[in-house]
Write a structure and sequence with these properties.
2 domains; homodimer; Arc Repressor Mutant, subunit A; Tetracycline Repressor, domain 2; DNA-binding
DNA sequence: CTTAAAAAATGAACGGTGTTCAAAATATTT
DNA sequence: AAATATTTTGAACACCGTTCATTTTTTAAG
């Protein structure tokens, strides 16, 4: 099956090429300003070819969103080298914010754009596996904190959701230009200043 | 100047009619799926007329975003009937979440969409007055809390930003379908469950 | 009233978008 | 070398935001 194998490999290679080209343009020019024609041009293929490998634009956006989660998930898994769950939770938030700020278009795609979720609805897969898995790592860490005696009187899932919302909210307001609008005294550090307030609070719980 | 006055009033009336039609369609069909042609059809005018009263689509979105802030600001100002600042702060979050859930498209426009911010950049106004004023009400309340001896060791602006981010994050994840993806034990109440975890925490500070 | 000037409303046309699909080009098999 | 299967193509479609010469309506002047 050598030829069939090679064909399969070539097919996969072109799929990756399209995703790579799309990611490059997304980062360079923003997702909104990137068109299928741009992507086709970037990799020297025709528009039609893109549609052979992807059902529609949402499919490209979804696959790229998954790639983003692979990356963020990788960083999160490294954090499990930190054995103290409270320390790990604190660092997790920092890593999350850093990732969001350094990969704004990808973050937007992962947590804000409707496209990846619309894609999920159009297929009959389970749910949002990427989000569920990554949120699972937060929950797991919070659970360990609780088991160590922290967060007395709190429930695991709502508390984890609150933590996620807190960091997501900060990143989202920043990326969607709402922090730039409200003129903070220290606009450049407001994200980490805000996060430090949160750290002070949970440090006592 | 009776005629000139009437003309001015008619002009303003048509402006409002366009905004009203746009808002209706946004709520009915979503902002993304609403076109200028839809809006023109809705109010029985031609596309061209819409462009006589608004520079472009961003201008419509910006004006509607301002209307949203007027509404939310109204609710916030009512809250100042509550004299205890900590109670007011807690209630403010609840009102914020309630507003977001009941006016999802408007909330998205106010805090997520790039259009209103792009409009601000295209004009030479000061900044994001709507956001600044509304965030000011949060800051003012947090300040009163601090003056009453709460939030020892915390800084006003970063702490206020943290509070805003927390509620915004929850609303944003919900509206952008990220809570639906991650299957919570109680998906219908996760927003208020998460908010209650936050209330438990600040209740002690 | 009639007519000239001003103001308001129009919608065809332009360049762009995502998407489709018959045709062409290329690769494989016979 | 011919027949078949696969891959690639790009013109064409319906729709988008936007423009602007033209038409319609309103106001002012004779």
């Amino acid at each position: 099956m050598s030829i069939a194998d090679r064909k399969a490999r070539e097919k996969e290679a072109l799929r990756s090429l399209i995703l790579k080209g799309a990611k490059k343009l997304f980062i360079e020019n923003g997702i909104e300003k990137t068109t299928i024609r741009n992507i086709a041009d970037e990799i020297d293929y025709s528009v039609g070819t893109v549609y052979v490998y992807f059902k529609d634009k949402n499919a490209i956006l979804h696959d790229l969103h998954s790639i983003g989660f692979q990356e963020l998930g990788g960083y999160f898994k490294e954090l499990f080298a930190i054995s103290d769950p409270m320390e790990r939770l604190k660092e997790m938030g920092r890593v999350y914010i850093k990732f969001a700020l350094e990969n704004q278009e990808m973050y937007d795609l992962m947590f804000n754009l409707k496209a990846p979720m619309e894609y999920l609805e159009s297929t009959e897969e389970g749910g949002w596996n990427e989000g569920t898995a990554t949120f699972g790592l937060v929950k797991k860490t919070v659970e360990e904190c609780i088991n160590k005696g922290h967060f007395k009187g709190h429930s695991l899932e709502p508390l984890s959701f609150m933590v996620w919302s807190l960091v997501h909210g900060m990143c989202s307001l920043e990326i969607r230009q709402r922090t730039k609008g409200v003129k903070f005294t220290n606009p450049d550090t407001i994200l980490f200043d805000g996060y430090n307030e949160y750290l002070k609070i949970i440090g006592k719980l």
